[in-house]
Design a protein that fits this description.
Blueprint: E1 9-12, H1 19-29, E2 34-36, E3 40-41, E4 56-57, H2 60-68, E5 72-78, E6 81-86, H3 87-94, E7 99-103, H4 106-113, E8 120-125, H5 129-139, H6 144-162, E9 169-172, H7 176-203
Parallel strand pairs: 1-7, 1-8, 2-7, 3-4, 8-9
Antiparallel strand pairs: 3-6, 5-6
Helix pairs in contact: 5-6
GO molecular function, one term: GMP kinase activity
Protein name: guanylate kinase
Pfam families: Guanylate_kin
Length: about 200
């Protein structure tokens, strides 16, 4: 059972949609209001990544044991690496009274919907698959085969993201500033309830 607190905010969208950029901007502008839930992964750290900041880097066997014990809210496997959000990671943010922000994929969203966390769900949509491919190629971090696989996953994620009822809002990221304003406005409309929940929790 995860400790009560403000409703978590989930940002979902295919790799290259810009959700991570929007997330960083939100956390930078409101450090006292939002806290990032750090995910676990079995992949190796990339240059510049720090354990406990970007991810909790762990061994596959250790993570499998933790999943077996029920320590994780959601997990997914991509390119042979496991990713997941632990109950503890969410609790650590919520304990501070901040809104816990998560950056997870579609499979993670499906699993979170099955919990009692009642998250606010935001899907960040790229302007087109072609633009998404251009952005991913500009990164130059993957070979052709991995890129094609990522685009296949993106198509499935976009399909799920566009289905009515799967998300509270779909934000088209064809302009970063415009998308950020839309995200802010959506949160402001719903954060009133979050702030009230947080006050009630602290008073009880």
């Amino acid at each position: 059972m995860v400790q009560k607190g403000p409703r978590p905010l989930v940002l979902c969208g295919p790799s290259g949609s810009g959700k991570s950029t929007l997330l960083k901007r939100l956390l930078k502008d409101f450090p006292d209001r939002y806290g990032f839930s750090v995910s676990h992964t079995t992949r190796k750290p990339r240059p510049g990544e720090k354990d406990g900041v970007h991810y909790y880097f762990t061994e596959k066997e250790t993570m499998l044991q933790a999943i077996e014990k029920g320590d994780f809210i959601e997990t997914a496997t991509f390119s042979g690496n496991m990713y997941g959000t632990s109950k503890r990671a969410i609790e650590e943010v919520r304990r501070t009274g901040k809104v816990c922000v998560l950056d997870i994929d579609v499979e993670g969203v499906k699993q979170m919907k099955a919990t009692d966390l009642n998250p606010l769900l935001v899907f960040v949509m790229p302007p087109s698959i072609e633009e998404l491919e251009r952005r991913l190629r500009t990164r130059n971090t993957e070979n052709e085969e991995a890129l094609k696989k990522r685009l296949e996953v993106a198509r499935r994620e976009i399909e799920y993201g566009q289905e009515p009822g799967n998300f509270h809002i779909i934000i088209m990221n064809d302009n970063l500033d415009k998308a950020y304003v839309e995200l802010r406005e959506f949160i402001e409309e719903n954060v009133k309830d979050i702030a009230q929940d947080a006050n009630n929790t602290s008073e009880n």
